[in-house]
Amino acid sequence: MSTAYIVSTGIITAIGRDYAGNLASLRAGNAGIAPLSLLRTRHHLPAGEIKLSNEELAQTYNLPAHWPRTALLSSIAAKEAWEPLRCKTDGLRIGLISANTVGGMDLTEGFYPLFKNDPAMGNDDDIRHHECGAITRLTASALDLQCWSTTISTACSSSANAIMMAARLLQQGRMDVVIAGGADALSAFTLNGFNALMILDREPCRPFDQNRKGLNLGEGAAYVVLANQKALQQCELSPLAIVSGFANANDAHHQTASSPDGKGNRFAMEGALRSAGIDADAISYINLHGTGTENNDASEGAAISAVFGKAVPTASSTKAFTGHTLGAAGAVEAVFSVMSIQEQCTWAHLRLQTPIADLDWQPATALIQQPVKHVLSNSFGFGGNCSSLVLSAVDPAQT
What we know:
With about 400 residues, the protein is of the alpha/beta class. The protein is built from 13 helices and 14 strands.
C-alpha cells in the first residue's frame, strides 16, 4: 500500500492565524479563550473566537466578502496548506475532503429574522451556501481546483474522518494527493444548542479536572495535504509526518453522550494502533479529545486506562487553548500533532488544578521537550462516532 505522507499543513484558530502563529502560542502557553465580541448573543460565555469579522477576513485574505464565515476560515487554512504544491501537481490525481457541521449558518441567522418579518425581505445570497457541502465547493473554488471532492459531517470527529478517508484513498492507489481537514465557525445556533445541553463552562474550561464544568466552544479551520511517493517526488517536498494508523468506532450509546466505560473510545484507539502496526507502548504522546465535560473526560479517561494500563504516555488536551472547534477539531489537533513531531515536544494541558480522583494517570501540565515518534490524536463525536489517528515521524529510509 502507498504511504500517506503529510507534506504540508494550514491552520487558523483563536491562538493563531497560520501554522507559525499557532505554534508560537502553543509554545508560549497562550490560550485564545476570551469573552465573545463578534458573535451576537445574550449569553455571556467565553469562547475561542477569531477576532476578525467576516469583512476583515475577506479583505485580509483576498476572499469574497459574501461567503459564509465557515467558508472563509476553511479557505484560509486550505490555501496555506496548498501553497507549497501549487503549480507542481500537473498530471496528479487530486482530491479534496472537507468537513464541517455548521455550514453557512452565520449568514442564515442574519437572513431569517428579516424573512420571518417580511418574506420579501432578506438576500437570497445569504442562504445560498447554507448546507455543509457548499463549504467544500467554495474551498475548492478558493484553491482554483476542479477535482473530486466530498464533504464529511460526523459531529466532532468530522475532520479526523476526513483525514482517515484521505489516507485510505492514497493507500488504495485511488489518489496521488488529497487535501483533507475541516472548518467550523461560531454561530448562535451552535452556542444555543450546546447551552441547552448544559455543557458549556462559564469560565475558561478545565479538561480532566475533578471540578470541570463543561467545554468552551471555538472556531477555526485546519487542513493537511497527504501525498503518495509519486507526488512527494514530483512536488519536491520533504514529508512532515505519516498518517500511519486510524480507526473509527461507534458505541451507539446515546445521541450526545459517550458510554461511561468509553467502549467506542477504546475500540477507536485500539483499532488505530492495530492499523499502525504498533503496540500501545510505542505512543509518545496522546492529544486528548479532552473537552472538559463530565461525561467526555470520564469516558475517555477510562478508555485510555483500559488501552494503556499503568503506562499512559504524556497526554494533554489542546482544547483549553482553542476551545472546541467541533467539525474542525480533528484536523486542528492533527496539525498540533504534526507540530509535536516536528518540534519533538508535547503541549501543556492548561488550567488543571485538581486531577480526576478515580483516574490513575493525569495530563501533563507543562510543555515537555521529549522524543516524539508516534502521536495518538482522539476525536470523539456526538452519537458515539469515535475516531483516532496515529501520526508518526518519518523514517528517512522510507522517502
